[in-house]
Write a sequence for this structure.
């Protein structure tokens, strides 16, 4: 199987073929490095299951745990410095053929400069990867790990440099603020805003009696506004200090997910009808650009580059594409 990365930077088009060995196409998840010079690829059942591609040189860094292979990567993220990635995968301890593999779940902070694991946060014997998501805060001091446990979900905050789990967070969904010094936790209608050391918190109470439940959320760059995307396609902006909603607008007919800002929070993106990326003006809530026409199957990922000029998308058609976020062109 070939994955083709179509890259448009500085009005120059490059095509970098990425060869992946696999039986059938798998979803591709992609993320920019903080300096926009590398892209992190990962996905379930991909082999290699997680790797970093340098866009200038084409050089690939593939994490391997000692001599062991990794597969079923369910989560990965760049550290803000760009020198590390975190990934959650299943580590194969017994070499092929995998008739009766000896495996364990692995969550690792991997150094791209030393090409080795700097911190291992789990390692239970299991052929299933229970990690749903893993992400750094902006200053890189903490990791938020979301883990499936039985019929429920644990949300864990880790001080990865000290190797310690600081606490379990309550809520159906959680995330970092843009600056990374605050967290939000959603429990049905209510949101708790808290700082990473647990010394301050604020509750925002909604009312979804009409069935318009929160579907996505984030905290804007100034740390003063909670932005919520709802099941019925509404955007709600809440003032965190007062706990009051200050603006609401219906921007699409279907649920809003994800809800991601550019670097300075002037624009945000949503995915519509599974294959369209829409970019919106945050102040006016008006549509600026729609990205379409490359992917043939549902999108798995969309993300602004750190400078906000570009946007990368990944799809279940096993392709990744970089777009000009201002013009909507590839």
């Amino acid at each position: 199987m070939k994955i083709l990365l179509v890259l448009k930077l500085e009005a120059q088009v490059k095509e970098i073929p990425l060869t992946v060995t696999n039986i059938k196409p798998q979803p591709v998840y992609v993320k920019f490095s903080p300096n926009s010079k590398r892209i992190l690829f990962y996905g379930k059942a991909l082999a290699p299951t997680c790797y970093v591609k340098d866009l200038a040189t084409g050089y690939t860094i593939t994490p391997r745990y000692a001599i062991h292979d990794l597969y079923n990567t369910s989560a990965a993220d760049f550290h803000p410095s760009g020198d590390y990635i975190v990934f959650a995968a299943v580590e194969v301890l017994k070499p092929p053929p995998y008739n009766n593999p000896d495996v364990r779940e692995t969550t690792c902070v991997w150094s791209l400069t030393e090409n080795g694991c700097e911190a291992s946060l789990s390692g239970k014997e299991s052929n299933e990867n229970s990690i749903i998501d893993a992400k750094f805060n902006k200053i890189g001091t903490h990791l938020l790990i979301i883990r499936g446990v039985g019929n429920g979900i644990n949300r864990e905050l880790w001080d990865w440099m000290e190797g310690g789990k600081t606490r379990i967070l309550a809520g159906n969904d959680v995330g970092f603020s843009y600056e990374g010094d605050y967290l939000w936790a959603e429990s049905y209608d209510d949101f708790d805003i808290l700082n990473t050391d647990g010394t301050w918190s604020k509750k925002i109470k909604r009312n979804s009696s009409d069935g318009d439940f929160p579907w996505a959320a984030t905290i804007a760059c100034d740390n003063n506004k909670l932005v919520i995307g709802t099941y019925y396609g509404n955007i709600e902006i809440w003032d965190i200090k007062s706990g009051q909603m200050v603006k609401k607008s219906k921007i699409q007919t279907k649920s809003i997910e994800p809800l991601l800002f550019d670097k300075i929070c002037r624009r945000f993106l949503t995915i519509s009808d599974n294959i369209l990326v829409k970019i919106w003006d945050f102040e006016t809530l008006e549509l600026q650009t729609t990205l379409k026409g490359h992917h043939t199957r549902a999108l798995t990922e969309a993300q602004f580059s750190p400078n906000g000029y570009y946007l990368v998308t990944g799809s279940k058609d096993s392709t990744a594409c970089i777009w000009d976020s201002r013009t909507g062109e590839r």
Observations:
- DSSP finds no helices and 29 strands in the chain.
